[in-house]
UniProtKB/TrEMBL annotation:
GO molecular function, one term: catalytic activity
Disordered: region residues: 137-162
The protein, known as: Amidase
Record-linked Gene3D superfamilies: Amidase signature (AS) domain (3.90.1300.10)
């Protein structure tokens, strides 16, 4: 008899299906039961279609019975982010302007997940057009944190993180511009990776060469995240800047034994030298993560890279990106988007060519500075989010430690300053606030070193549990 539950690891579920200890249909029913139990309160999975999911699970079982070659995720229930086009499935982007949109084709991330054998059950909720790190929209409402439903699940992949943490799905995908994989992972106590630029190719895109936002995986453990990254990563002829490493190099189980962190050079910084305000409760968890690293054999030093141009770089490129992608839609529907998003799009319309050129020149400077920084250190550790999960009825935290936050981006600097370096960054659960709310630590490594970053994250994960 199978001992699989919705809280089992994705690797255990995939192995159980492959070994016929549980069928895809039985595994789906376990997750549909959990969705029925938790989703009415959390609102993480949207556009749920249980009948179509059952048909997909039955087809997966027939394929296996017929001797078909099984993908790495065969039979696992799956819900793509609602900004990822999914053929035949309502994909709203969290906007009333797209509330009835049903794509004809899968985008590449969904295509790869389906090819690996997943059974789609629905989508995961997002903010409007994935703008902002709190998941609410006029189409489906607010997604809530499974550890405290009065709190935000983060965003923009908040539905994904909430669904994962509550056992509604075993794996999830997302995207990350200013922290949209990392922030909700921290808020919900799961793992989220912003991969190196080019690691997870995306297609189609409105601008194939604009790489501020990337797609990536989320999971409940680092090892499960590596399994999904192995499916999502790898080159594709439609994506000219994709890195060439095949996905399989990331999917191998990760070593976590004694000595895995011996001699690792960790630069630890709570605020990147005063670059942002950090809630005292978050700072305490990040400092404790340094102790965890030291206890496991790492060499921990208080240090940080110079990222003084990163704020201007990110805000300029974000506004330019939003204007290029959504400006025509806003012009057609001037009252059709939330105010904070509309304001950012309009900021992009005021940018000059010189502004954008400056931002890209600065981005090159930041990348070179990070390259040199990582000749002295192996990993940078810092907060994922500057605050713990905030009340779900707020759009964003208005203050940190009593200091006002002027815009809905200010409290996300700890994530978005890393965005414009191009380096891979992973959010790993590191502790809790005195109120019991999850807090993650953000680990950053040199561009292209995603596998090594996963190894470090898995070893930290294991050490933090001891």
């Amino acid at each position: 008899m199978s001992t699989i539950t919705p809280d089992s690891t994705a690797r255990a579920m995939a192995a159980a299906v492959r070994d016929r200890r549980i069928s895809a249909r039985e595994l789906l029913e376990l997750h549909l039961e959990r969705i029925a139990e938790r989703n009415p309160e959390l609102n993480a999975v949207v556009s749920l279609d249980a009948d179509r999911a059952r048909a997909g699970a039955d087809a997966a079982d027939r394929y296996q019975a017929g001797g078909g070659r099984l993908g790495a995720l065969h039979g696992l229930p799956y819900a793509p982010k609602d900004t990822h086009a999914t053929a035949g499935w309502r994909t709203t982007y969290g906007s009333p302007l797209r509330a009835d949109h049903v794509p004809d084709t899968d985008e590449l991330i969904v295509e790869r997940a389906r090819r690996a054998g997943v059974v789609v059950v629905g989508k995961t909720n997002v903010p409007e057009f994935a703008a902002g790190s709190h998941t609410f929209n006029p189409v489906f409402g607010t997604t809530r944190n499974p550890h405290d439903p009065s709190r935000s699940a983060g965003g923009s992949s908040g539905g994904a993180a909430s669904a994962l943490a509550s056992g509604m799905v075993p794996l999830a995908d997302g995207s990350d511009m200013g922290g949209s994989l990392r922030n909700p992972a921290s808020f919900c106590g799961v793992v989220g990776l912003r991969p190196s630029l080019g690691r997870v190719p995306e297609w189609p895109l409105y601008n194939q060469w604009e790489t501020t936002s990337v797609g990536g995986p989320m999971a409940r453990t680092v090892d499960d995240l590596a399994l999904l990254l192995g499916v999502l990563a790898g080159p594709d002829p439609r994506v000219p800047h994709a890195l060439g490493d095949p996905g399989r190099v990331f999917a191998e189980p990760l070593p976590t034994g004694t000595g895995a962190l011996d001699g690792l050079r960790v630069a630890l910084s709570v605020d990147l030298g005063g670059a942002f305000e950090v809630d005292h409760r978050v700072a305490a968890v990040v400092e404790a993560a340094g102790t965890t690293f030291s206890r496991a054999g790492a060499q921990v030093v208080g240090a940080h890279p110079d990222l003084r141009e990163a704020d201007d770089t990110f805000r300029t490129l974000r506004a330019w990106h939003l204007q290029a992608k959504l400006g025509p839609l806003l012009a057609e529907h001037p009252d059709g988007m939330k105010q904070s998003l509309a304001d950012n799009i309009r900021l992009g319309a005021d940018l000059t060519g010189a502004d954008v050129a400056r931002a890209y020149t600065q981005r090159t400077t930041l990348a070179e500075r990070m390259r040199l920084f990582f000749t002295e250190y192996d990993v940078l550790a810092l907060p994922v989010s500057q605050v713990p999960p905030f009340p779900a009825d707020q759009e964003y935290p208005a203050e940190i430690n009593g200091r006002p936050q002027a815009t809905y981006l200010d409290w996300m600097r700890s994530a978005y300053l890393i965005t414009v370096t191009g380096c891979p960054a992973i959010a790993v659960p590191a502790g809790r606030t005195p109120e019991g709310l999850p807090v993650g630590v953000q680990l950053v490594a040199p561009h292209g070193s995603d596998r090594r970053l996963l190894e470090v994250a898995a070893a930290f994960e294991a050490a933090a549990r001891e």
